[in-house]
Amino acid sequence: MEAKTLVLGVIGADVHAVGNKILEIALTEAGFNVVNLGVLVSQKEFVEAALETNADAILVSSLYGHAEIDARGLREALIEAGIGDILMYIGGYLVVGNQDWSEVEAKFKQLGFDRVYPPSTLPEDFIPTLREDLGM
Amino acid sequence: MNRTLVLVDIGSTFTKVTAVDTGQARILAQSSAPTTIQDVSIGLKNALQGLGLTAEELRQARKLACSSAAGGLRMVAIGLVQDLTAKAAKLAALGAGARVLNTYSFQLTEADREEIIELGPDIILLAGGTDGGNSENILHNARVLASLPQPLPVVIAGNRSVAKEVAACFPEEFSTYIAPNVMPQIGKLQVDPAREVIRRVFMEKIIYAKGLDKAERWIDGIFMPTPAAVLRAGQLLSEGTAANPGWGDLIIVDVGGATTDVHSLGTGLPSRAGVVLRGLPEPFAKRTVEGDLGVRVSVLSLLEAVGVDALVQETRWTREEVESRAQLLHSQPEVLPQNQAEAAFDRALARQAVRHAVGRHVGHLSELYTPAGLVWVQEGKDLSQVTTVIGTGGVLVKSDDPLAALEGAGKQADAPLELRPERPEFYLDGDYILAAMGLLAQEEPEAALEILKNSLSNYKLCGEGTIVG
Ligand code: B12
C-alpha cells in the first residue's frame, strides 16, 4: 500500500521547533510520507500544502498558548479549498495555564479537529490511533 | 588557436551580429540591420555583411543565434495552488526566456479556456501537484486543454505519478513533452529541467511556427529565446569558470518600451542573523518580467503603477505635461527626445521602471510580533549584498545618463524593507553583448567570460553618468 501523506507544522507566530522535528523523525520512521512545513506556518500554508500533496491528514502543533486564535477557521478554509473532510489533529501546549482538559478538548473539537492531544504526548501515544483513523 | 564565431540576435526591430575571436577572447566586429520579419534571413544577411569579414571567413565562422522576434516566446503557465506549483511553473517559463501571458491556478474554467485561445500562446507549461500528490487537478486541466481548437506543444511538469496519463489526454496533433516536476515536494523548487525542455521545444518547434527557420541555413546552432541567452550570460559572469572566477551575485536590468526584465543570480539567502525565511524558495537564476513597466508602449500602465506624482516630483513638470507626454510616447513609440527636458523625462521614466521592477523582483522583510518579541521574516530573495548591477537594452544603453536610471535599483529611503542592493556598483552593457555572450557561453565559456568582463569593465558607471574606461 502506498504511504499515507501527513502535513505537519507549528501554527501561527510560534517558533518552538524541537517537538516538530521530533514528530517529523518519528512519523517518517513509522513509514509515513511527511511534509513538514516547520514553524511559523499560516493557515493558508497548511491548506495549500495539503492540496498540492493530496495529504491524508494534517497535524497541527501549537506550543505558545495561542492555539485557539491561530487554529480558528482552519477547518473552514479546508472546506473552502475542497478538502474539508481531511483528518486533522492538534497537539502541544494548547492553552495557557491549567485548564480542565475535557473543556480544552471539546473546544478544539468544535474548531474542527478530529483529535486533540495534551502536553507531553509522545509519538507512540498517538501513532497507533493515527493509523487506525487512516484505515491502515 | 584562433576561431571566429558569429553570435546573432534577431530582435523584433534589429538583427544584431557580433563576431568574436575566441582564441584572443575579443570582439572582432559588430553590426546590425533592420529585422525583416517576412523573411528574417534577409535582415540577417544584411547584418552579416556589415561585419566586414570576407565571404570565406563568414562561411567558416560558426554562427549561433537567439531571437526575440515575432513576439518572442509566448507562454501560459498552469499549476494547482497559486503560490506553489502555479508560481513554480511561472518561474520556470520566465527562466526559459518566455513572456508569460498569464498564469492559471486550480481547475481551468470554460472562461479560462477561452482566454487561452484568445492569448494564443506558443507553448503551454502544465504543472500541478507535488510528486505523489494531487492528480485530479492536472488531469482535469489536461482534458480542458486537449479540447483547444489549435493544437499546441504542451510541456508537462507536474505530479510525476500521472505524467504519462496527463500526456495521454492529448490528441496526437498536440506534441507533449514530459519534464520533471517543477515542484516535486512542498518547498522544493526544481525549475531547471523544465526550462531546458522548453528551450528544446522552442528550438524544435517554435522557430518553425515563427518563420525563424528561414534563417536556419545561415545558422549552425542553438536557437534560444534572447532573454534565456541574457540569463545564461548573467549566470556565467556570476559563477565564473573553473579557471576564471566570476563576479559573484549580480542583477541585470533590461528596460524596454513594453516591459522591464530583471534577472538575478544568487541564492538570496538571508544576510542577517535571526531572520526566518518563508515561502517558496526561489531559483538561483531568477528572471521576472514586468509587463506594465515599459517606457513606450507600456508607459501608461507605468504611470498608473508608479503614480503621476512620482514623475511630477522628479521632472518638475505639471501633471498635464506628464500625462500628455506619456500619451504621445504611448501612441508613437518611435518618438525620441528633442531637447533636454524631454530627455530628462525619458530618464525619469526609466528610473521609475527600474525602481519598481527591482522592487517587485527582490524579496522583502516584514516584522512579526510574537509573544516573545519581534521576529523578522524574509520572503523572496535577499539581494541586499549584491554589488554588481548591470543595465542593458536600448533604453538604458542609448540614455545620456544611464546611471540616473539604474540607481533606481539601489536602496530606496521609502522602502527600507525591500532587500535591494545596499552598495551597488553599476555597469552598462554598452557593447550590447550580454545575449551574444550567453550564446557563446554554451560553447566557449572561457572566452565568453573574458569578453564579458572586459566589455562591462569599460562601461562601469560612476558619478554624473560618466563612464570610467
Ligand atoms: C525551548 C522552549 C522555548 C524556546 C524555543 C526554541 C525553539 N526554536 O524551539 C524559546 C526560548 C524560543 C521559547 C519561546 C517562548 N516560549 Co517556550 N518553551 C520552551 C520549552 C522549555 C521546551 C519546548 C520544547 O522544545 N520541548 C520539547 C519537545 C520535544 O516537546 P513539545 O514541543 O511539547 O512537542 C512534543 C509534544 O507536545 C507532542 N506534540 C507537539 N505537537 C503536537 C501535535 C500533535 C498533533 C500531536 C499528536 C502531538 C504533538 O509531540 C512532541 C514530541 O513528543 C517549553 C517548556 C517545556 N518544557 O515544554 C516552553 C514553553 C512551550 N514555552 C512557553 C512560552 C510561554 C514561550 C513564550 C511565549 C514566552 C517565553 N516564556 O519565552 C515564547 C514564545 C515564542 C514564540 N513566538 O513561539 C510556554 C507555553 C505555555 C503555554 N502554552 O501555556 C512553555 C510551556 C513554558 C512554560 N511552562 O511556560 N520557548
Keywords:
heterodimer; A: 136 residues; alpha/beta; Rossmann fold; five-stranded parallel β-sheet; globular; B: 469 residues; Nucleotidyltransferase, domain 5; 3 domains; seven-stranded mixed β-sheet; five-stranded mixed β-sheet; 16 helices; 20 strands; 36% helix; binds cobalamin
In short:
Chain A is an alpha/beta fold and 136 residues long.
Question: Which helices and strands, and how do they pair?
Answer:
The complex is a heterodimer of chains A (about 140) and B (about 475).
Chain A: E1 5-10, H1 18-29, E2 33-36, H2 43-53, E3 57-62, H3 67-71, H4 74-80, E4 87-92, H5 101-110, E5 115-116, H6 123-133
Chain B: E1 4-10, E2 14-21, E3 26-34, H1 40-49, H2 55-60, E4 62-67, E5 73-78, H3 85-95, E6 98-104, H4 110-119, E7 123-126, H5 136-146, E8 153-156, H6 163-168, E9 175-178, H7 192-209, E10 221-225, H8 226-239, E11 250-255, E12 260-265, E13 275-278, E14 285-290, H9 299-306, H10 308-315, H11 319-331, H12 340-361, E15 364-370, E16 373-379, E17 388-392, H13 394-398, H14 402-406, E18 425-428, H15 434-441, H16 445-458, E19 460-462, E20 466-468
Parallel strand pairs in B: 1-4, 4-10, 5-6, 5-7, 7-8, 8-9, 11-17, 13-16, 17-18
Antiparallel strand pairs in B: 1-2, 2-3, 11-12, 12-14, 15-16, 18-19, 19-20
Helix pairs in contact in B: 8-15, 9-12, 10-12, 15-16
The complex binds cobalamin (B12).
Cobalamin sits at the interface of chains A and B.
